[in-house]
Please model this.
Amino acid sequence: MRRARGTLLIWAFLAPSLTIFLLYRILPLLWNAALSVQTWSPFRPSKFAGLIHYEELLFHDEVFWTSLWNTVVFMSSSPIAIALALGLALLVDTRIRGRGVYRAIIFLSYPLMTVAVGIIWRWLYDEKVGLLNYVLLSLHLTQRRIAFLDSYEWAMPSVVVAAVWQIVGFFMVILLAGLQNIPPNLQEAAALDGASGVQRFRHITLPLLRPAIFLCLMIGIINSFTSFDLIYVMTGGGPNYATEVLITYIYRVAFVLSKFDYAAALTVVLFLFLLVLTWLANRVAGGEAGAVDAAE
Amino acid sequence: MRYAYVVGALVLLVGGCNLWVALHNDGIVRGRVVQPDGRPATGATVSFWEKTLTTLERRTATQTGPDGRFVLTGQAAHHFALQAEKSGLGASPRTLYRRYFRGQNLVLDEPLRLGEGR
Amino acid sequence: MRPSRAASVHAALIAVSMVMLVPFYWVLKTSLTGENIFQYPPALLPRAIHPFYYVDVWYYIPFVRYLANSVIVSAIVVASNLVCNALAAYALTLRFRGQRAIIGLLLSCMLIPFQATIIPAYLITKELHLLNSHLGLALPLGSTIVCIFVFKASFDAIPRSLIDAARIDGLPEWRIIRHVMLPLSTSAVATTVILSFIWSWNSFLWPLIVIRNPELQTLPLGLSTFLSYMENTTGALYAFCIMVLVPGIALFLLEQRRFIEGLTSGATKG
Model:
């Protein structure tokens, strides 16, 4: 009797959270899969339609492939961000005064509203009056002003720079925590044995930082698939889909064009891609990269 | 404890500002109009234009008195333009003015000069 | 450390700090002076400071309404997260049949990003008649798996003797949570508050989908609506931007350490 009441209580405690996850994570996953094989319309009842949406997106939709490519480009900015963050972490980890201040300044951009950050960078990239154009012209690096967000070649790199700017502080803090977990006597022993700074870095620091680096990589991968705000505000999908990533394309198809069924198929593809990439990254990391919540 | 100080300071600031605004927001604009030669312009029409983010709309107008001074009341817009004109002497340029809060009582430093506008 | 080495580290870090801070400075300057909205070349130092763009924002944009909506939704999310996650984590510390299955379920749910669920989430919210409502905005964010595990790690660290003593004293379970477990898990509480607050305060995609009524727009939504109306023809946009960023920056500076710890433990799962 006591055990039965105890179990009931346990499930009652779990119920609120489980309801939310059931309603907003598990059920949507299944619903997406179901929706992607139907024809859906707000006016007619849905009918089973097989794989026509998948066929359409794989063979007849150029924007899908463009957006997939853009997502991959976005993802490949993660290693750059991690390298920068590693450099910053090494600098901040030295015993200089005021490193808390530096850490705060560099981390500042991460918890801020991405919409506001997007507006700020839009302004910096402005073709006629932006600061970046002014700096480039003053340093004589270009002859004419560059339309960063309006040109086909520069739009995606510009967005990537803004994204890296925002996340480098977060990566730095993670790597900093990893650096501080390395036992100092290892470094000292190696120095006593005559290893140079570079050798110590390559053979002690880097291997011990592997979990932290792969954590950053996972976060970067997930970010590139879910980073909607920045792109929507900065370019809205870019001049002629130059910055359209998968998630902005899904939003456009679902909520601007109201084609929920096709968008559901796109979402299934996004999720599968994300799963495969996360699994791959985990395998490469040796399985101990640490789980990351993709809820952001 | 920091939060108490921050919130308390904010509350005081907001309360103080609201009090000041309430005491000073009758919406009066005083100024004067001068002729091209520097003498005060009597009987010139001063029109008040309200500026929104996208448009400029004429709201009201008044006449200057014998000393070239005018008083505009009842307009609260915080971004507005004034233009003075008198037949024969031309018009002043339509100049934009700003208020810190709606209805702030304003006394203009520079007079509106006829003849310099279109 | 040799002074020359310290000096070069400082120099490098100062350069990086400038790169991180110049965008804020630039937008702040534009919001205070309105220079280089239309003219070029831009001035590097502000020339004529005036607060009138902020006056514009105050009167032309319903800033207080947006702020109130954001605050209400964030408050609901934070409260819901604290309650749901603490309860669930406590339940998971007890041993019962299916405990491991539930933990495995939660771990695999962590792989599902919110963005992969927007379409059905919209349809579900519509079925529940929660479109255009604060509750509808808050519900998907109402509980996060990361916070459950953060709480669980914290609860697991509490010695069983305390809990057993409380049980022997006859305290009901929820009382145990409130008076024994939570006071000993302040860092988990802080992490949950910070993580759920940031996620709900900055969330843009979900309000964009769910809110059609301008009365209920939150700050990010209001900002992007204003941007789409006015583009960059007025300094009021940048004043709005600064006003939106100020609470976030202020909170961060007040609780810096907890922010950084909370966000990193959120990523590394405690």
User: Anything to note?
Assistant: Chain B has one helix and nine strands. Chains B and A do not touch (no CB pair under 8 Å). The mean pLDDT of chain B is 86.
